[in-house]
Protein 1
Amino acid sequence: MLMEVTCRCGWSTRGLESEVIAGIQAHAKAEHDIKLSADDVRAVWRVVAEGPPIDEPGSG
Ligand SMILES: [Zn+2]
């Protein structure tokens, strides 16, 4: 399952849960001097649907 989280500044990242947590923690520290906990990240992230979009057959 992929997750995505967007910072208040507009920066965003997506990936595996552990990657997203580590990614925005590093961003928040580097860009905003904020220390985020994993729970902070879990409170704001959203699930990204995996797989290609489903096209209806018969057209095109
Ligand atoms: Zn930011």
Protein 2
Amino acid sequence: MDLFNQSSFQNKLPFILPQKEGYSYFFDEDKKAFIITIPNGKLIFVPIFFDENLNNELMSYLLKNENNLNCKVTNWRNFEKENLSEIKFTNINWTHNQIKIFGKLLFEPRFSAWYGDSDAAYSYSGLKLKPNPWNEKLLFIKSKIESLIEKIEKTETIEKKESLKFNSVLLNWYRDGQDSMGWHSDNEKELGQNPVIASLNFGATRRFLFRKIDKTKDKKEKLEFSLTNGSLLIMAGQIQHFWQHSVPKESKIKDNRINLTFRVVRN
Ligand SMILES: O=C(O)CCC(=O)C(=O)O
């Protein structure tokens, strides 16, 4: 199926959703969005939030560098912390962070960058991230997502009393399928009780998994999404309390991917 041909969706969710109580979805024709309910969570999936041209343009922007390395053809796998610092990225301050796992300092299997309002500091896995100041393109993307959410809020799929304004974004850059993101929930207290997190995708299609963390029942409950270039996934409701998500390794994937998760951080 050509995921970039809107007509091929025929309003049918391009993933399998269990056919049982607690799961349902509908396609909102006006917003071109699937509004999905799962037990203890809400998801909104927009298969084509940005068209291919705009998305490719934005991906080049995010990886633009003064070394003239082309974002598509460069083998980024060869770039570890040392040589990453030799590349002067024009628009994004990419870093290769180290985190402590079982007392050992290890490099994360991806590069990342934190942008946002000056007071939107964020901590996870022992890392304290100070925001880089917004740039014009990130603000452009943010405003497009906020406008969509505002329209959806009006239909009360996302329960909010006031308009949602993101104040930060975490950028993750997966050099190829060997880079990944382990199981976790975005449940840090500075994200608030039931955070709305909007996740936008550029580049290689990657698997995105959910698993239920309710220990008493539905232990094996899993969902699998396929996040394509230009797609947007919004997580809302109680999802961060009841589900974890991950981007597993896929060794066959040679292309790189960038994911942006827009958040509201309250310090
Ligand atoms: O790359 C992704 O799709 C996931 C990113 C993510 O889980 C996060 O930023 O918390």
